[in-house]
Design brief:
two-stranded antiparallel sheet; Cyt_P450_B; Cytochrome p450; mainly alpha; about 60% helix; Cyt_P450; 6 strands; about 350 residues; iron ion binding; monooxygenase activity; Cyt_P450_sf; about 5% strand; single chain
């Protein structure tokens, strides 16, 4: 009797697991998880590096439809595509989907960045960042950005017969963001940070194998170096504010350091400032430089007319930008057709139904 009872207790969990697996297997999206840890990461990363990621995803959609399973960056993943997918991801409540990135992102960026924290921390950090980016704040940075553009043209464009636009546009974007977010002047410190930042980006999109020779490991090492540099800047800005040697709105770091609640406590911790400043740089660098405008006579006409109205060496103003209405519409239409963010990750907090398929918890 005891032997029978022991056997029964042993077999029941196995039976339940097998029945649950069979039930899941009929409803889990089509596709393959591939080799453990590797999955489809190599093909996906190759497509990213060769700028063919959209075609790679289109091939999946033709093969499996708009919902399929795969393994990316070491994690089982469900890929969903289309307007209904966008609505499902962006309008679902936080008890079903969490705003969580792949482990490689979290390890490199840290656990207190906007993409990792949940409400109410997400709301608090987001409001602090958005406060800096209001139009009334941005107006004072037009001249600063104009100065960076002039230096950039002098270095990378003037006298050149051929210019490969995207790489130098990314450098320009980095320079402008460094100026506005960090208050970095051009020089050794800025370019040391550029190297660390590029290695971090490469580390995001790498198979998360933490060995000394891997790109992921280099991304982790350079993340430590970059965050140390930003932390030193935060401390410098804090001292300057205390000595009345800086204006709160002169750059993002100074602004975030200066923010306090009604009780006089800092709105963000030092760790949150460091990680979210780096995240802001990532967001601007990856999206702004890839916005390609359709070059037409109408788009060229507006800036040419503004240039004619300016004296030699005179900086652009917010009023000048406001005149470029057609250019703005072209930019918005380009963003509508080709969103600058390649994709968005979420984590299923519970077994979730979508389009007749089951997305298992996790």
């Amino acid at each position: 009797m005891n032997t029978y009872l022991t056997s029964l207790l042993f077999l029941v969990p196995i039976f339940l697991l097998l029945s649950r697996t069979r039930r899941y297997s009929k409803r889990i999206p089509p596709g393959s998880l591939g080799i453990p840890l590797i999955g489809q990461s190599l093909g996906f990363l190759l497509a990213l590096h060769t700028n063919t990621a959209e075609k790679w995803l289109e091939d999946r959609i033709r093969k499996y439809g708009p919902v399929s399973k795969l393994s990316i960056l070491g994690k089982p993943t469900v890929f969903i595509h289309g307007q209904a997918a966008n609505k499902f991801v962006f309008h679902n409540n936080s008890s079903i989907l969490a705003n969580q990135q792949p482990e490689s992102f979290a390890k490199i960026l840290g656990d207190r960045n906007l993409m990792e924290v949940s409400a109410p921390d997400h709301k608090r950090i987001r409001e602090a960042l958005v406060s800096f980016l209001k139009p009334e704040s941005l107006k004072q940075y037009v001249g600063k950005a104009d100065e960076e553009v002039r230096k950039h043209i002098e270095i990378y464009w003037k006298g050149k017969q051929v210019v490969t636009v995207l790489p130098v546009m990314k450098i320009l974007t980095f320079d402008i963001i460094c100026s506005l977010l960090f208050g970095f002047e051009q020089g050794k410190q800025r370019y040391q940070f550029l190297y660390s930042f590029q290695e971090m980006l490469n580390g995001f999109w790498a198979i998360p194998i933490n060995l000394s020779f891997t790109q992921y490991n280099r991304g982790l090492r350079e993340s430590v170096r970059a965050q140390k540099l930003v932390k030193e800047l935060v401390q410098e800005k804090r001292v300057l504010l205390e000595k009345k040697g800086a204006s709160p709105r002169q750059d993002l770091i100074t602004f975030l350091v200066s923010m306090h609640d009604e009780d006089g406590k800092p709105v963000l911790t030092e760790k949150e400032i460091v990680q979210n400043v780096v995240l802001s740089l990532l967001g601007g660098y990856e999206t702004s430089a890839t916005l390609e405008l359709a070059v037409s006579e109408a788009v060229l006409q507006e800036p040419q007319e503004i240039a004619k109205s300016k004296n030699s060496g005179e900086s652009l103003t917010w009023a000048d930008l406001a005149k470029m209405k057609y250019t703005w519409r072209v930019a918005m239409e380009t963003l509508r057709m080709v969103p600058p963010v390649f994709g968005s990750f979420r984590k299923a907090l519970t077994d979730t139904e979508y389009n007749g398929y089951l997305i298992p918890k996790g």
